[in-house]
Amino acid sequence: MVKEEISEFEKQRLANIAERDALLKKLTMEAQSSGLFPPKMPKPAAKDQSRSKKKAPVKRVKEETPQPRRMSSRLRGIAAESEVAKRKAEEENEALQAAERAKRVRKSDNFSFNEMVVYGQKLSGDSLIGVDVVTKGVAIPYQRTFGDDDVQKTTDKDLKALRKEMNGLKLWEAWEPNRIKLTPERIYSMTFHPTESKPLIFAGDKLGHLGILDASQEKPTSIKHEANDDDEDEEDDDPDPVLTTVKPHTRTISAMHIHPSKPTTLYTASYDSSIRAMDLEKSTSTEQYAPESTSSDEPISGIDMALSDPNVLYWTTLDGEFGRHDIRTKSKPTVSTWQLSEKKIGGFSLYPTQPHYFATASLDRSMRLWDLRMLQKNKSQDPVPVGEHYSRLSVSHAAFNSAGQIATSSYDDTLKIYDLKAKGISSWENGHTIPEDELGPDTIVRHNCQTGRWVTILRPQWQQNPQSHIQRFCIGNMNRFVDIYSGAGDQLAQLGGDGITAVPAVAVFHRSKNWVAGGTASGKICLWM
GO terms for CC (predicted)? Predict the structure, then answer.
């Protein structure tokens, strides 16, 4: 094989390389010997390779003395600790759940107010109430949408006068709203006592507490203590309002009612499936209606009574039922119930002047008008309403006034007013029905009803005995106001004031006086008079 000869150019290139390598090696050795150059570092490739390969864990063998063959706890006669602990945990969990269920079971006993007091004043006398009582657009958050300018622009003389009167209502000056905590939890229902001698307010909350406030009380004059060496910074006394909170129910108080002919009795309805009567004069509470078994769950959503009959209770449930009971007898056959809806009935009310008619509002998006005479006549048939109207979303409440109007609130952000008197309800015969296209609302008002999870559902409430020919109702406003509207849908006022830190979602009118109260999710109230 013939060996290839290297060209002169290649020979020179190789010689240059060898000379350069020799020079670099010499310089490196000299630098290392003088300490100017660090020792040679390991190659990066080797380092990366060491990272990519995980070292196998070194198993440490623990030297132990030989043990006897493992045997089960049962064969060794020892109870397994894990089984004992598991059984104990299960028993404790069952006991805890049983205790929680017991808290929610209604109390069927009769008891006095002092036995129900949670906080506040206990009763020193026999009576809780004194002798004098016995004798239009969705708003920007927190921005007012109705005020003095709207009042001044009003051309109708009567409407303008009423607007001035309603806008003239002022917050109770004795205490700021954030200091009037009437219940421990969120307020679900409220009512005024019908007396005109003083504003007496009742509020029910989520856990069955009932708060009672006499707003005729005056704030005591502050007493300034003399400064001394021990207490130089002592402030003036500033007592909270006197109020009483009791707990007659074990679950949410959803509705309450005081019949004007029985002013000493407050009826409260609850999600614990019971209706109780509280004697405000004798300071006792008795159960008026409840299912036979305490394990039956029939949450009551509304309660009402006919003006002409103070002895019959009417109610609705979250299961879509409507009930009637004569409280003069304890006999269960006197209780009549009808299934009016497959979904919950959120609210209902009787027509005051013709109480055989009543309206219901349901989660199934309907407002229905019923005739009690037809329900009683056709007990074996499915109930048929006199008429019905559907909204785009669920209807929260249907409130009747004495003029034959129904006001509803709905999650489609509307307030609807149905004028049944104009449709001839006073002349309807037994069995009369009306098609849906004729039962539509006469007035629709835009109103934000998106309360969410933590605010009580907004419901309209009429003033049942207004002192003028103009009907009016109130409803909570998500911008921390209470709105007042007329029966024609005209806004009369927007009540607010300093110190209102939450939405007064539960708004109620006094029966005849221009007093308005609003309850919040923190159990506090606002009062305008």
Answer: nucleus
Is 11 within a domain? no
CB 517 within 8 A of CB 508: yes
Question: For residues 161 and 155, what is the distance between their CA atoms, to the nearest angstrom?
Answer: 10
What's the N-to-C CA distance of the chain in angstroms? 124
Round to whole Å and give the CA distance between 286 and 335. 17
Using one digit for the tens of pLDDT, what is the confidence trace for 500-524?
Answer: 999 999 999 999 999 999 999 999 9
Q: Is residue 25 part of a domain?
A: no
Question: Which pLDDT band holds residue 74 (cuts at 50, 70, 90)?
Answer: low
> Which is nearest to 320 in space by CA: 355, 360, 272?
360
* Residue 204 structural domain: 101-135+157-217+240-528
Residues with Cβ within 8 Å of 46's Cβ and at least 6 positions away in sequence, in order, are none
Number of domains in the chain: 1
**Residue 247 maps to a domain:** yes
* Main-chain phi, psi angles of 462, to 5 degrees: -80, 155
User: Identity (one letter) of the amino acid at 224?
Assistant: K
Residue 136 to residues 441, 486, 493: CA-CA distances in angstroms?
Answer: 15, 12, 12
Q: What is the pTM of this model?
A: 0.75
In contact, 396 and 347? CB cutoff 8 Å: yes
pLDDT, one tens digit per residue, over 452-501 is: 989 999 999 999 999 899 999 999 999 999 999 999 999 999 999 998 99
* DSSP bridge partners of 151: none
